[in-house]
Design brief:
By secondary structure, this protein is α+β, with helices and mostly antiparallel strands. It has a single domain (4-266), classed as Creatine Amidinohydrolase (Alpha-Beta Complex). It is 28% helix and 24% strand. The protein has helices at 13-36, 43-56, 125-143, 151-165, 261-266; strands at residues 60-61, 75-79, 82-84, 98-107, 110-119, 169-170, 176-178, 185-189, 206-209, 212-214, 220-222, 229-231, 237-239, 242-247, 250-253. Strand 7 and strand 8 (185-189) form a beta hairpin. Helix 1 runs antiparallel to helix 2 and helix 3 (125-143) runs antiparallel to helix 4.
């Protein structure tokens, strides 16, 4: 059975280059938002800033109007125990909070999708460590991807790193995904699993890897807004995400401003960008 028969979209090098344009816009938008996070700012102010930046640079927000009920904003803004899909609004950030910002943009029909979790002012040591562990697990996952390998090699690397760092909850009901002409495509990219399972990693496959990790339970509740997902035990959560691909030269993180060159080099992974 071929990749396209299973709904997996394989891109040409030229199409990956177009995805890089969308990915770079997402990465630059997240850097702008990271610098704007501070006590006293509202999540709606961050959303307004994100939408203006994306549209001013030739993009369209991926999330706005997505699915049913239609998502009403440009970013997902999830605070503290909110893991993912928080809706921006009048909530004011306070010292000690963390905010997960998920952002997507479409340029010329191609999607980029990435997320960061940002501390607001000074946060507790265990919360700072949660953010470090989650972000590092994302990079370990991408670093495990090789042409000819399997998608679950990424999953195994994410899980193995997090488990080695302490007692954390890793969400299993929400996963990473394929991405390209649509934001969410096959295949799913779980954050737990054994090596050697799932579709092969081939040139032209683009994936969004997104570990979601908590200080407590892996179990979650869905809010009445039908979007916001929170931990059942009220524990803080972190969410990091990048869109990436693997070329014959190495890995290329399409939503990282530097293409992932610095972090990949630290993990001994060749850079495959152009």
């Amino acid at each position: 059975m071929g990749f396209r028969d299973r709904g997996i979209e394989i891109k040409t090098p030229e199409q990956i280059d177009l995805m890089r344009v969308a990915g770079l816009l997402v990465g630059e938008t997240l850097e702008l938002l990271r610098s704007a996070v501070r006590p006293g700012v509202t999540t709606l102010e961050l959303d307004t800033l994100a939408e203006a930046h994306i549209r001013d640079h030739g993009g369209v927000p991926s999330f706005k109007g997505y699915s049913h009920p239609p998502f009403p904003a440009t970013i997902c803004a999830s605070v503290n125990d909110e893991v993912v899909h928080g809706i921006p609004g009048p909530r004011t950030l306070a010292d000690g909070d963390v905010i997960s910002i998920d952002c997507g943009a479409i340029v010329a029909g191609w999607h980029g999708d990435a997320a960061v979790t940002v501390p607001v002012g000074e946060v507790a040591d265990d919360v700072a460590e949660l953010l470090r562990v989650t972000e590092e697990s994302l990079w370990r996952g991408m670093a495990a991807a090789r042409l000819g390998g399997r998608v679950s090699d990424i999953s195994h690397a994410v899980e193995s790193y997090v488990r080695a760092q302490g007692r954390y909850g890793i969400l299993e009901d929400y996963t990473g995904h394929g991405i390209g002409t649509e934001m969410h495509m096959a295949p799913n990219v779980p954050n737990v699993g054994r090596r050697g399972r799932g579709p092969s990693i081939v040139e032209g496959l683009a994936l969004a890897v997104e570990p979601m990790v908590t200080l407590g339970s892996k179990h979650t509740d869905l809010h009445a807004d039908e979007w916001t997902v929170s931990t059942v035990d009220g524990s803080y959560a972190a969410h990091f995400e990048h869109t990436f691909t693997v070329t014959p030269e190495g890995a290329w993180v399409l939503t990282a401003v530097d293409g992932g060159r610095e972090r990949l080099a630290a993990l001994g992974v060749p850079f495959g960008g152009r």
